[in-house]
Amino acid sequence: MPFLTAFGVLFGALAAGMPIFLVLGATSLLLFWIEGEPLIGVAQVVVNRLNSAALIAVPFFVIAATFMAKGGVARALVDFANAWVGRLQGGLGLVCVVATTIFAAISGSSVATAMAMGTVLVPAMMQARYERHFALGVVGASGTLGILIPPSLGMIIFALVADESVPQLFLAGVVPGLIQVALFVVIVLVYARRKNYPAGEPMSRDEFIAVNLHALPALTLPVIVLGGIYGGFVTVTEAAGLSAIVAIALSVLVYKECRPGQILEFMADGVKSAGSIIIIVAGAMLFGHWIIESGAPHTLVDWVIDQEIEAWQFLLFMNVIMLILGTFLEGISIILITVPLVLPLLQALGISPIHYAIIVTVNLEIGLLTPPIGLNLFVLSSISKAPVTEVVRGVLPFFVGMLAFLMLITFVPVLSTWLPGLVFGR
């Protein structure tokens, strides 16, 4: 009964419009107080849970994404993609998919990816006579790759909660991420043919070489981050710090769209964004601690075993739950609220936590495109001054494709577990 009361209070407060960090923190404190738990001990729980090397990587990746979006790195990646695929029919749509894939391999954030790509590509696509809703849709959908293609802030948080390996989770996202890229490419090509969107002008050989050379420094970032991690040269946290340093250097010294006097301003923006994530994490960790202490996960495991629920039924049920939660909760909150509850069930049902992490991530991607709270929808609406309904119309074909993709990832676990197993022997 306390468990049901807790979730009733939680979702009631969210429905009333209270900030998520305040809802999680206040609900947790209230529950501990009702049970007579000393609140000084509760504070120690938060401190202990936040004392994590993996969590330190979050602000560094956010700062790197901020400088990439504002310092010219994103524009260089768009030009690079345009040199390779821009001359095809619907070329700018393909440029968006390719550029966001590379940007995602550096930033770890879907919102940052959508914002950076939207600022550059939406005006360019409209100037080339693409329909605005399509331009918004392809940027919004492609931006979701930011949390599936490694590095991923969402996977770092999942690893923190589930006590899993961050490098293994990153690897698990590679094959699904490439499948999703291929899916978006197909959707863009089909749509471009139906609407007879134009092909871009081919570049001369000298222009092609110049654009590629100009983008080369930006392309070193994913090599530094992922190569450093899997080459054993740096930890995930060190790679995050290195990515921030390199992103600042590229923005100031190479692409020069960030003046030295703006470094502190851009860094403050990144720290502000990271701080909001950490505050939500702290509140959700406290709530997760109460869930574990209440014994609810073990009760749920016993109930599932008694009902003889199969793994595929459980995964299908959790997909429905997460899709619903994604309509009004931010992704990190969904991870922090649901994962502590279901972790014991994964073991009982023989489900790999690595596989489940990718299922969660794809659900979070879909949540970024789901009204009324889908963050990518509002980011693109703000950039383009278009109504949110127009953005929703644009993402709809991609949304349907992602639902099919979710089913594929859910019921073909080898797509998520093959690469980590190959590298780590898991």
Q: What does it look like?
A:
Helices cover 80% and strands 0% of the residues. By secondary structure, the protein is mainly alpha-helical. Helix 12 runs antiparallel to helix 13 and helix 14 (263-294) runs parallel beside helix 17. It is globular and about 70 Å long. It starts with a helix and ends with a helix. The model has no long low-confidence stretch (mean pLDDT 87).
How would you sum up the global shape? globular
Helix content: over 70%
Q: Main sheet, how many strands, which sense, barrel?
A: none
Tell me the number of strands. 0
**Number of discrete helical segments:** 21
> Which blocks of ≥5 consecutive residues have pLDDT under 50?
none
Order of helices and strands: HHHHHHHHHHHHHHHHHHHHH
How many angstroms separate the termini?
A: 39 Å
Mean pLDDT: 87
Q: How much of the sequence is in beta strands?
A: under 5%
Structural Rg:
22 Å
Topology diagram in text:
Blueprint: H1 2-15, H2 20-34, H3 39-50, H4 53-70, H5 73-85, H6 91-107, H7 110-127, H8 132-143, H9 153-162, H10 166-172, H11 174-195, H12 205-230, H13 236-254, H14 263-294, H15 296-307, H16 311-325, H17 331-349, H18 353-367, H19 375-384, H20 388-411, H21 414-424
